[in-house]
């Protein structure tokens, strides 16, 4: 069996909810089934949204659920020199942008660039900042002629491709608030940590082509990807802290988490598991995940 290193990378914006538990469970099981390593990385670059103590609460919740990571936990805010080095490596393809989100939205409406509601950057500052505009974000140029189509095989969804020129445009690598953009940071971290397999929610499927493009420019290996379905609320919105998702771990006895959290998360993933203890749950979950991969999931 080839070497496998996976990861779970939560943001410390609050405690884990059922949706994040589903992602954690899928990535953990996939690593265990492949006899690989499972790392935990705290993605805390967005300091304005971080909640004090949330990182420790997340780690404790994982352990209470019987999930133990390999090696040391890493925090993105301790890795910023790596992002600076990547930015320097990309310097010839980066330019300052002075556009606000409203200006981009107005431009795409005027030019007919909307793609399924996404904000496609129209290239306003590509040739230089307009008079009177101050630099806000840093953007990475995407190829214009010909358009660049990025394709990959997702282990859950099969063949996926995206014309990043037409469907995304030049995208942000450093935000207007000075924080590193998710796309750059996650690529740098995955490369530095030797991540071979990324298992995460399907809400990030659309981001993957941008990350593959960055991997190419930075000379990093391409991991395998598996994007599991995301849990939604009654309004059909992705379950998240922003949509009022409740913490799954409210400090109740650990064994209560089996019935209230672990078994529901497993059922959502399509795993039929019967267990009366947390150790028994994981013992049953690993072969159940392996069977799910064989029966329903694309191989890459």
TrEMBL record:
Belongs to the class-I aminoacyl-tRNA synthetase family. GluQ subfamily. Keywords: Aminoacyl-tRNA synthetase, ATP-binding, Ligase, Metal-binding, Nucleotide-binding, Protein biosynthesis, Zinc. A motif ('HIGH' region) lies at residues 10-20. The keyword Metal-binding applies. Zn(2+) binds at residues 97, 99, 121, 125. Residues 7-247 form the Glutamyl/glutaminyl-tRNA synthetase class Ib catalytic domain. A motif ('KMSKS' region) lies at residues 238-242. L-glutamate binds at residues 7-11, 43, 182, 200. ATP binds at residue 241. The keyword GTP-binding does not apply. It comes from Pseudoduganella lurida. InterPro entries: Glu-Q_tRNA(Asp)_Synthase, Glu/Gln-tRNA-synth, Glu/Gln-tRNA-synth_Ib_cat-dom, GluQ/Sye, Rossmann-like_a/b/a_fold. GO terms for molecular function: ATP binding; glutamate-tRNA ligase activity; zinc ion binding. Binds 1 zinc ion per subunit. Its cofactor is Zn(2+). One of its GO terms (cellular component) is cytosol. One of its GO terms (biological process) is glutamyl-tRNA aminoacylation. Gene3D superfamilies: HUPs. It comes from the Bacteria. This is Glutamyl-Q tRNA(Asp) synthetase. NCBIfam families: PRK05710.1-2, PRK05710.1-3, queuosine_YadB. The gene is gluQ.
